[in-house]
Write a structure and sequence with these properties.
alpha/beta, Quinone Oxidoreductase, Chain A, domain 1
Length: 347
């Protein structure tokens, strides 16, 4: 079958990979939509590990077309979004429901073949753990392919103790920054202030619900946050692009008893200089988040149909046979989220 193959850093190609029937406990998902994540791009650039020869793609939705012996959690013909983590089920994190922090987790698209293929073999452990999540009514496949990144945003906001009416500052209006705007607005955020140096992305941030959008100048951002919050500072600050210097900028706009989340992955050897007394006396929480729990993924799947502006985050769609362009096109900052679809959907 046709799939995108990660050879090594800087080398991806569309080619043929083995396609087999499911064994005991396994299931096969026919891909209907898969999206490319910033983490996929970091793998491509050599900043993050993935197994050579693996099929990328951890953001996917499709139809179950075959199941192996003993499978009861999914049925052929059912539609699903895939929570891509395979966890051990027995470590301290798994016992607490934090399968995204499993000590020996594997992830589709990095360790096992993922969604940028005609079909995806879902491992028995993933199927047994209920990680093929049924689509909510009204959530089409393209929207459902955004379940995983949106769940990561839910984890981000919940880790920041987000509450209705909270003011939010977001550094970076790429796809994940925009998803933060969409979800924060849907959950009842107060003022949302966004900093983004690229004009087209500033326009996108306004379109999906930001109250104030400024360029990347730290002083301009501090002024906008002060104006939006009556000088109190933001309750929640999200760093959604991994650039040196942004941690310090984020802390400079954080209010008392606020939370700052380093949501983005940073290049190796990145660092920040922090005034620890400022954190201490203002009671600021500085954290980072990665992935989402299965519970957050399921709640996000249920929430997807009601998220206004979600489609605006997808700027380009590519056929699977042209999937390399879903990566290459992201060099252009005007390009936002890219989707890969089966050839017959775009033909």
């Amino acid at each position: 079958m046709q799939a995108l193959i990660f050879e090594q850093a800087g080398q991806i190609r569309v080619g043929e990979v083995a396609d087999r029937a499911p064994g005991p406990g396994e299931a096969v998902l026919e891909m209907r939509a898969a999206s490319v994540c910033a983490s996929d791009l970091r793998v491509y650039r050599g900043e993050k590990y993935a197994a050579p020869g693996v099929v990328p793609g951890h953001e996917m939705a499709g139809v179950i077309v075959a199941v192996g012996e003993g499978v009861e959690t999914v049925q052929p013909g059912s539609s699903a979004a895939v929570y891509p983590i395979i966890s051990c089920g027995g470590c301290a994190f798994c016992r607490r429901g934090l399968r995204n922090r499993c000590s020996s987790r594997q992830t589709l698209g990095y360790d096992r073949n993922g969604g940028l293929a005609e079909r995806v073999l879902l491992p028995a452990a993933l199927v047994a753990q209920g990680h093929a999540v049924p689509l909510a009514r009204g959530a089409g496949f393209e929207r459902a392919a955004l379940t995983e990144p949106t769940a990561c945003v839910l984890n981000s906001l919940e880790s920041c103790r987000f509450r209705a009416g909270a003011s939010v500052a977001i550094l970076g209006a790429g796809p994940m920054g925009l998803l933060h705007i969409v979800l924060a607005r849907a959950l009842g955020a107060g003022a949302i202030v966004v900093a983004e140096p690229v004009e087209s992305r500033r326009a996108a941030a306004e379109a999906v619900g930001a109250d104030a959008v400024v360029d990347g100048d730290p002083d301009t951002l501090r002024g906008a946050v002060a104006e939006a919050t009556g000088g109190e500072g933001a309750d929640v600050v999200i760093v959604s692009v991994g650039l040196n210097g942004l941690t310090e900028t984020a802390l400079s706009v954080a209010g008392r008893q606020s939370s700052v989340n380093l949501f983005a992955g940073f290049p190796p050897e990145s660092s920040a200089t922090i005034d620890v007394n400022a954190l201490h006396y203002a009671e600021v929480s500085l954290t980072g988040t990665q992935n989402a729990t299965p519970d957050q993924f399921r709640r996000t799947a249920a929430l997807l149909p009601s998220l206004n502006g979600l489609e605006q985050i997808v700027s380009h769609r590519f056929a699977l046979s042209e999937a390399t362009q879903a990566y290459e096109s992201r060099r252009d900052p005007a390009v936002l989220k890219t989707l890969v679809l089966p050839d017959d959907q775009l033909g």
